[in-house]
Amino acid sequence: MKQKRRERIDRGIKVRSDDIFALTSYREFLYVSVPPVAPIILLLALPLILPLYWQKVLITTAVFAILALSWDFLVTVGMVSLGQALFFGVGAYLAGYFDLRFGLPIWTTIPLATLMGGLISAILLLPVLRLRGVYFSMVTLVLPLMFERTIEATGWLGGTEGLTGLKSFSNIWVECYLIVIVLLLVFFGFRRLVTTDYGLVLKAINNNDRAVMSGGINIYWMKAQALFITGSIGAFCGAFMTHVYMFVGMPVFALDYSILPLASAVVGGMGSFAGSLLGAFILVPLSEALRGIGGLRTVIYAISLVVFIVAIPEGIFHYVQRKYQQFERWATVDN
Amino acid sequence: MSETTGVKKGELLLKVRGLSKNFGGVRAVIGVDFDLHQGELLGLIGPNGSGKTTLANLITGFIKPSEGRVEYRGKNITGLMPYRIARLGIARTFQMAKPFADLPAFKNIVIPLFSPRVRGLSGGRYGDRDSVAKDLLEDVGFERDSSVTFKAAGSLPHGYLKRLELAKCLALRADLIILDELFSGLSIAELASIVPIIEKMMMEGKTIIMIEHRLRELFRIADRVIVLNFGQIIADGKPSEVMESDEVKHAYLGTED
User: Fold this and answer.
1) What CATH number corresponds to the domain at position B38?
2) What is the 3-state secondary structure (H, E, C) of B140-196?
């Protein structure tokens, strides 16, 4: 019996541009070089062309993109975090505290908060490293909420008022370019990291942790390192935003900072980092653009989220990448 | 039973004393004692559920014993974490060969090559782990530069998966290797190609424990066999002697009348 089915075939240009042959013509050269170079140029040029309001949106978007990247990184190690807000919030409060208590300059508070935030996050989650899957996720979900309530109940760190009157960056250009450059560093850093032997071991832990252990590797130490990396990146975002707002308060532990990065990674496509980046740059500006609508904003936002996930479950990035590299055609097959 | 221990070759490698494990009310392993010497190939056999795999898990640290102790080269390793035991030179395969499915076959070998044990043995960095991994795969019968080496491990045929597991043990440069049902599911042809690999490992002075159900193949290469039944050792000795024991015949084959 003859049957029709869709088959996917690599585009000629993809095959031709593999390896060194990419250098044989401009078309092939552009085909391989545009995808990695375009986002760099775009990100560096955006602050120049955007009006002030959208520059601020760019900063928020970049922060969420970095959080999404770090979430995606944790997933490659097999840890599904529902609490990026923990990393973000710890970093935010550390920066605020160092500023107010010791009067340290910005360029000291941010690196300090980044490193200490990573350490604190890793240490807090050390006891649950043995937990897998949903159990780990539950703990990460609860921790930031616990911090929030503790600050509210005890009045520490300014309590419900928060810490105000913090130092700010000298101007918006510094803010824009600092966060965009960090975003690019984190993005390409992660892409590089997962291809090294170190990254390979991290991926293998996700795949089969027992086999990694029988290979003589301390998976808990590796996981702690991954948490430190993710934690410091999240803490950097928090510390950065503290100085952008010149304020830090309980909202830094809000669910937004946990869920939006996750949603970005899922909508954009997990496991590639490019997906997380793309997802954040769709979802965050979309949420801003919908501000004009008023009350129904959240509803429309939620619907569009569902549409993305149902229509392109593999993630926007993987869909675009497939279209870029392959074409589909109907083929008749014998059955 | 214990007076009929098999051929003793080298120094005492593994000493197991009174090892027991209870899962709730189930006594999976009960007071197991045995010694293993350098260069021995010990077969561990017994009916399903007799505690063979539990015993392997107890030795390699994946399960903490309820009682008893395990010594490796005179060092007490009871209850150590699995990765610590692996670093001392005890490698194992798993009953269900589960590779790192998304990674190419040779990248699977890079994982044990990354362990501090191998890095320490070779003095600092191991050099190019990829090429070492490919060499190891060739040792276990992956054809050099064939596409199999580069295929995603998840898509490998069963026979190759078993060899991949062997290569992981070799990568760790382990002295004691525990093979959990290595032969299961292999065709006669695949067996014929995997047995020489084990014989080669023996010639290199490795000590091997094989948990097996395929006795005919096992008895050809084993120096000594321990028979477990309901978590207890019921026989320990040369393969030919062990199968003569009435208790073993009864436990293993059922009563033949």
Assistant:
1) 3.40.50.300
2) CCCCCCCHHHHCEHHHCCHHHHHHHHHHHHHHCCCCEEEEECCCCCCCHHHHHHHHH
> Does a structural domain hold residue B32?
yes
CA-to-CA dists, residue A85 to A111, A148, A254, angstroms: 19, 10, 6
Burial string for B22-31 (b: 16+ CB within 10 Å, else e) reads: eeeeebbbbe
The answer, for B86 touching chain A at a CB cutoff of 8 Å, is: yes
The answer to whether residue B200 sits within a structural domain is no
The answer to whether the pTM exceeds 0.95 is no
Which of chain A's residues have a Cβ under 8 Å away from the Cβ of B101? 207
> How far B242 CA lies from chain A's nearest CA (Å)?
31
Structural domains present in chain A: 10-49 (no CATH), 52-325 (1.10.3470)
Centre a 10 Å sphere on the Cβ of residue B94 and count the other Cβ atoms it contains.
19
B150 touches chain A (CB under 8 A): no
Q: Tens of pLDDT along A261-291?
A: 999 999 999 988 999 999 999 999 998 888 8
Of B87, B99, B129, the CB nearest to A216: B87
Boundaries of domain holding B253: 1-83+219-257
ipTM of the complex: 0.86
Q: Which long-range contacts (CB under 8 A, 24 or more apart) does A101-108 make?
A: A105/A167, A106/A167, A106/A168, A106/A169, A106/A243
B73-106 confidence digits (pLDDT tens)? 999 999 899 999 999 999 999 988 788 888 899 9
Q: Closest Cα to residue A225, out of A140, A125, A335? A: A125
Residue B40 lies in a domain: yes
